[in-house]
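Section 3.1: Structural characterization of target chains.
Under the original work plan, the team committed to producing a structural model for every single-chain target entering the pipeline before any wet-lab resources were allocated. The record below documents one such target. The sequence was received from the expression subgroup and is listed exactly as submitted; it comprises 141 residues.
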Amino acid sequence: CLLSQIASRARYYPCCFGYIGFMLFTFILYGLYLVGKIATAFAETHDIRCMRALRLIGGLHAAGSLATLLLIYIMIRVRGHIRRKYQIYGDDCNDALTTCCCAPCSMMQMAREVETEPCCMQCNEGEEYEPKEEVVVAMIV
């Protein structure tokens, strides 16, 4: 839910989704992740020897892993969009490292940045943000 709310306030919808579509897409990805984790835990606790069952569990685990990677990728993209929109110093590599190392911390940082955005939660504006001019931040050491 938080990822959908952040994307809504930042007006970032990948793949031409609206708010509801993006929210459903993330719920489906989280569901695939959960099913994959449950199937893997079930296979580890029970001694399963049936090849069909093992293939099914392996497929569910693979689907869950792919869903997790796609969610992380979406979070990195949303974080980069927010950084460019609010002209926050950083780069895509730092966004990826922050999101991969501590996704909840990354989500909270994004939520705090966009909480002052005047957009409502269900706005259907899917326009892509385009920066007006390049901002250069000089670090003084």
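The chain has five helices and no strands.
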